[in-house]
Structures are given as C-alpha cells and as structure tokens.
Design goal:
With 195 residues, this protein is of the alpha+beta class. The chain has four helices and ten strands; from the N terminus they run ααββββββββββαα. The strands form two sheets. Strands 1, 2, 3, 4, 5, 6, 9 and 10 form an eight-stranded antiparallel beta sheet that branches. A hairpin with a 6-residue loop joins strand 4 and strand 5. The longest helix has 32 residues. The protein is elongated.
C-alpha cells in the first residue's frame, strides 16, 4: 500500500467514527417535544372555546329522590353528546363531552345516567324524544347499530347522547322501551341521523 492510500483509509476511519452528533439529536428531540406540547395546548384551547360557545346550555338536572322501579338497566360506555342530527357537533359544556363508564337506568320518571368519574345527570321522561341504533357519534364510529343514541331536550336544544352497552344485544330493548315513553315522537326512533 502506498502512503496516500494509508492516509485516505485513516481519514475515512476517523470520519466514520463520528456516529452521533449529540447536539443536533438533542435539538431535534427538544423541538419535537415543544411541537407536541404546542399541539396539545391548541387542542385544549379548542375544547375550552367550544365549551364557552355552549355556555347557554342550562345545568344538567340531577336524579330526584325515590325513583320508581326501573324498567331497564345497563352498564357500558358513554361516548359523548352532540347536537341532535349533527353527529360531529360535540357538546362539551357541563361535562357532556367527557367519555366514561356509565350505568343507565330507565324508569317511568326518566333516564338516570350515572357516570363514575364524570358528571351524572337525569333526563325526565317528558324530555325524552326517542332512541335509535346508529353507527357513530363525534369521536366514535362502530359497526352499524353498535351505538344506542338517545335524543332528549335540554333547554331549547335537542341533544343526542351515545351509549354502548357491555352487551350490545340490549340496545334494541332500550330503543323499544324509550319509544313507549315517547309515543308521539316514535319517528325519531326509526331513522338514524343524516350524515
């Protein structure tokens, strides 16, 4: 080997020994973390803004004492509430946008919604407008008929609330039972919201 080849080989070995440029790598990681924090902050601001726009929604009613015997009960998931017929217009005021476990109880007095870790509420029977099986509500899409959507009036607004039972076969019985409480609104129960 000639001295020039040996010198080129030594120089190439020295260059390849620099595996990591720690300064640049740390700068990229810090930049990425700042970007993620910024996106999270924007999402949080959007959630607060949506809640501020919906501050005209009255407080949610609590369940009255001494509810009559229940017609149906289920445990499952609460997936959120939207403006009726607009499955992407999520309502976040008064904790209605918070997903949680749920225990639903339907009585002759109305629908009792108990949500561990979130705000419980009660829908009086006079406020129930119907129920249907659907495939989605803001942020959650399931197979056709996989979601129980209850339509109810609160203040001057119609609201769709989405629930999924731990045993999805129960959904049909819920649609029928809510329909018997609201016979004048049975047309709501048969058709899903337009998409």
């Amino acid at each position: 080997m000639t001295p020039a080849v040996i010198q080129l080989a030594a120089e190439a070995e020295r260059r390849s020994a620099e595996v990591t440029d720690w300064g640049a790598r740390i700068a990229w990681v810090v930049g990425l973390l700042i970007f993620i924090a910024f996106v999270y902050w924007l999402m949080r601001q959007g959630w607060k803004w949506r809640g501020a726009l919906q501050n005209d929604l009255p407080e949610l009613p609590a369940a009255p004492e001494g509810l009559p015997e229940h017609r149906l009960a289920l445990t499952g998931r609460y997936h959120g509430s939207t403006t009726a017929g607009q499955w992407l217009d999520r309502i976040v005021a008064h904790g209605l946008g918070v997903r949680s476990r749920v225990e639903l109880t339907l009585t002759d007095a109305g629908l009792d919604v108990v949500r561990p870790g979130a705000t419980d509420f009660f829908v009086p029977a006079a406020q129930l407008r119907g129920a249907r099986l659907d495939k989605g509500i803001a942020g959650k899409v399931l197979t056709e008929g996989g979601l129980l959507v209850v339509t109810w009036a609160h203040g001057d607004k119609l609201i769709d609330s989405g629930f999924r039972s731990d045993r999805a076969a129960e959904h049909v019985a819920w649609v029928e039972a809510i329909s018997t409480l609201t016979p004048q609104n049975s047309s709501i129960t048969t058709e899903g919201a337009e998409r």
